[in-house]
Amino acid sequence: MQFVNFFPLLALVVISLAGKATVEAATGLNPPVKLVWHYYKLTNTCDDAETYIRYQVEKFYKNDSSIAPKLLRLLYSDCMVNGCDGSILLQGPNSERTAPQNRGLGGFVIIDKIKQVLESRCPGVVSCADILNLATRDAVHMAGAPSYPVFTGRRDGGTLNADAVDLPSPSISVDESLAYFKSKGLDVLDMTTLLGAHSMGKTHCSYVVDRLYNFKNTGKPDPTMNTTLVSQLRYLCPPRTQKGQTDPLVYLNPDSGSSNRFTSSYYSRVLSHNAVLRVDQELLNNDDSKEITQEFASGFEDFRKSFALAMSRMGSINVLTGTAGEIRRDCRVTNANYGA
Hints:
Elements: E1 12-17, E2 21-26, E3 36-37, H1 39-42, H2 49-63, H3 67-82, H4 108-121, H5 128-142, E4 151-152, H6 174-183, H7 188-194, E5 202-204, H8 209-213, H9 227-236, E6 249-251, H10 265-271, H11 278-281, H12 287-298, H13 300-314
Antiparallel strand pairs: 1-2, 3-4, 5-6
């Protein structure tokens, strides 16, 4: 698989997959590119911002490795809705984070702590949006992902209401999933790569029970799910028959489980029909995503390289720069409400 370095332009490349197929995919950021590498150092506004962030992430990670999947999901939930503007971090009775799709989001405490540290050293300089992108990079690197360059210079956005959150269900088809990613300026390689983040973390049983008991109203489990996995998950996720019933958590990738390690085993599980979520298993129902899945299952380094690019591309969606937005003093509130 051929990958090129990050260039500040959109280029298209035909990527050879195991010598059997080709997939057209971007090799750089979508123009116009508004972010730069080491923004705070280049502008002499907070030279050691990235060092401060990395130190705090290391402290948290040593105590709780689950911050890696938590921050990954938090960043995805921010960037894929209204762009990477840190709006997911804002608190409020009808804020973005209260949307049903964002139930169980974590990692806020880490971002708030990092912001406090940076405000004590470089007040009013480093955006919450940049903190979230940088902290996620550092956490997933500690979990085994590549340490990719994070372009910075984002500014923070305003409040977004919960009903504006358009994150799709994890029970959609591959065509629906690809349409959603394309609507955000991403392609099939980005989609297949970013879904690989499901090599870590957990999901609620409510997102899985349809595959276990009544797939597409058949009264039977999803025929594409390995029968052993069906049995294992049924033990953990009983049928939802009562209002107010508990909704347990299960590992997205039982192979890595509580270790929260970033591996390519996710793709091997998809190929063996052992994916927990339907959106993951659906990767085999598209020729391009299937070929990419096969390549990543056999070549972890290819997956790592693609992950680095996909994260940079997602991190550049609809960013605010220049005089747009603001630099929040507290990631939980806009400056207009700061100290209120």
